[in-house]
Design brief:
There is one protein chain. By secondary structure, the chain is an alpha/beta fold. The protein has helices at about 10-20, 35-45, 55-60, 75-85, 100-110, 125-140, 165, 170-185, 265-270, 275-285, 300-315; strands at about 1-5, 25-30, 50, 65-70, 90-95, 115-120, 145-150, 190-195, 205-210, 215-220, 230-235, 240-245, 245-250, 260, 300, 315-319. The protein folds into two domains: about 1-120, NAD(P)-binding Rossmann-like Domain (Rossmann fold, 3-Layer(aba) Sandwich), CATH 3.40.50.720; about 125-270 and about 295-319, Dihydrodipicolinate Reductase, domain 2 (2-Layer Sandwich).
């Protein structure tokens, strides 16, 4: 039985807890949150037997095997390093810092302690992304990928996020789409980026990428316009469109479009969370298992590469 602690007890922690309760071979044994009222309430609701007001208190107690780091963005790097330094593996909510350098420092802490970390970019674990990857490989490989990333920045005042967090929102949400792009196409070998700045953080990011296979990618982040996240994948006689990240349509030459829906697990739980957690717990129980059931979760070394791509977009040619 793998004993799991959760550091940070907010809405995302609740989604992780729901999955752990549904998986065999694991138990939630501890929760950490500075506010004792909401922290104890969360632990009571999720049947977690031990509450701690600090990560240091959790580590002093020590009766757990692995941890989920789901704290506020300002504290992710510090607390991930603190737990990893004890040799325990961690599933770390994205982003792991706000630069490749920060993510690399967490990787270094894990390697120094002889352990590993997984980054919670759950879109790559969607059933429809797994199926799209299989179809692209069967068609001879991806030739083109287009990512559309819109954000409702007109609502930013309602989100309750500090200004310095909003200034780095590309890393907070953009990482999902960039990670999906890199998962499907590989790490870009070169890129060209233009950033346009508008009032109230309604920025625009446009980046072109070339991948090792020769495929071309386009990331379009138009934060001043309405819309949903979208993805467009092209291969020989095959196109897979995602009008949202939770639904897809398969287009084949001279064939009727075929809808592709999330499977039962992705409908029952927050999409991607079940398989992501399944992979994390499987490797926590057996460190030789780094791939499970035909899909690959994101570990820290790969996350560093993804953050380098985000760095390149963030510091592009500003106009």
């Amino acid at each position: 039985m793998t004993r799991v602690a959760i550091v940070g007890l907010g809405n995302i922690a609740r989604k992780h807890a729901e999955v752990i309760h549904a998986l065999p071979g694991a138990a939630l044994v501890a929760g950490v949150k500075r506010d004792p009222v909401s922290g104890r309430l969360f632990c009571h609701e999720q049947s977690i037997p031990n509450y701690f007001a600090s990560t240091e208190a959790l580590l002093n107690w020590g009766e757990f095997d692995a941890a989920i780091i789901a704290c506020g963005h300002h504290h992710t790097v510090e607390l991930a390093k603190l737990v990893l330094s004890t040799g325990r593996p961690c599933l770390i909510e994205k982003p792991v810092g706000f630069s490749a350098t920060e993510t690399g420092s967490v990787l270094a802490a894990a390697e120094s302690a002889g352990t590993w970390g997984m980054v919670a970019v759950n879109r790559r674990c969607y059933s429809i992304i797994t199926e799209a990857k299989r179809l692209l490989e069967g068609a001879g490989g991806l030739r083109s990928i287009r990512v559309e990333h819109t954000e409702w920045m007109h609502q930013a005042r309602e989100w309750g996020l500090a200004d310095d967090i909003l200034d780095r929102y590309l890393y907070i949400n953009g990482i999902h789409l960039i990670d999906t792009m890199c998962y499907l196409a590989g790490v870009p070998v070169d890129s060209s980026t233009v950033v346009r700045q508008f009032p109230s953080r309604r920025n625009a990011y446009d980046a072109m990428f070339r991948f090792p296979s020769g495929a071309i990618g386009h990331y379009s982040g138009q934060w001043y316009a309405p819309g949903r996240w979208a993805l467009d994948l092209c291969a020989e006689d095959l196109r897979i469109t995602f009008p949202t990240m939770e639904q897809a349509v398969i287009h084949r030459t001279a064939c009727e479009p075929e809808p592709l829906a999330l499977d039962e697990l992705d409908q029952k739980f927050k999409p991607g969370f079940y398989r992501q957690m399944e992979a994390f717990l499987a490797r926590a129980a057996d460190p030789t298992r780094d791939v499970l059931a035909g899909y690959a979760p994101c570990y820290l070394p790969e996350a560093v590469n993804t953050m380098r791509v985000l760095d390149a977009i963030a510091v592009g040619d500003v106009r």
